[in-house]
């Protein structure tokens, strides 16, 4: 598949391996601790996002400096503004396994399904749209908005450790 661009249709066969969240495993004090593990379940993004407004952003790796300091916090802080713009789902993907992504969500005090922390094993999705990092084979740093199956915005970072086209401000400006 070529790179996604505004006006394209979101692929009909995208399934991410998702970390447990309250949407699938009810959140409780016992499972809310960063050291608690749940059982990963598959997440059929094509089905779940078909009739919703979605912001999907991708980072090269959980717990890395740029991702943890400059990328994810902006989406957490501006989640109310995204909701005001009609966004139903905010999801972040990374190359990491579901247990790391779950811990990263918990480390950022994300509870429930405010932001889905999904895994893109082997950068399968990112490679399918041409946005995996060629040097490392990991997911690239990018953001996509999907409105009822149609791509509204698609921005990728071409410089290392930069959050400009994939950051929450660029996404908010596009909504």
From TrEMBL:
Domain Thioredoxin: 4-175
InterPro entries recorded: PRX5-like, Redoxin, Thioredoxin-like_sf, Thioredoxin_domain
Organism superkingdom: Eukaryota
GO cellular component: mitochondrion; peroxisome
GO-annotated biological processes: cell redox homeostasis; cellular response to oxidative stress; hydrogen peroxide catabolic process
Signal peptide: none
Short name of one Pfam family: Redoxin
Gene3D superfamilies found in the cross-reference section: Glutaredoxin
GO molecular function: thioredoxin peroxidase activity
Active site residues according to the UniProt entry: 67
Keywords noted in UniProt: Antioxidant, Oxidoreductase, Peroxidase, Redox-active center
Family note: Belongs to the peroxiredoxin family. Prx5 subfamily.
Function of the protein: Thiol-specific peroxidase that catalyzes the reduction of hydrogen peroxide and organic hydroperoxides to water and alcohols, respectively. Plays a role in cell protection against oxidative stress by detoxifying peroxides.
Protein name in the entry: Thioredoxin peroxidase
Source organism (scientific name): Penicillium chermesinum
């Amino acid at each position: 598949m070529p790179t996604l661009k505004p006006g394209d249709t979101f692929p009909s066969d995208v399934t991410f391996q998702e970390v447990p969240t309250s949407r699938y495993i009810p959140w409780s004090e016992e499972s809310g601790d960063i050291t608690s593990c749940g059982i990963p379940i598959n997440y059929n993004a094509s089905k779940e996002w078909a009739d919703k407004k979605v912001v999907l952003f991708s980072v090269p790796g959980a717990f890395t400096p740029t991702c943890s300091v400059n990328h994810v916090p902006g989406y957490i802080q501006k989640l109310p503004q995204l909701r005001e713009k009609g966004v139903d789902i905010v999801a972040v993907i990374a190359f990491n396994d579901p247990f790391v992504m779950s811990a990263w969500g918990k480390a950022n005090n994300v509870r429930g399904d405010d932001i889905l922390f999904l895994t893109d094993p082997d950068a399968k999705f990112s490679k399918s749209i041409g946005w995996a990092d060629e040097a490392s084979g990991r997911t690239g740093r990018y953001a996509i908005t999907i409105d009822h199956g149609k791509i509204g915005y698609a921005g990728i970072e071409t410089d290392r450790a930069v959050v400009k086209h994939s950051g929450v401000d660029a996404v908010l400006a596009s909504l």
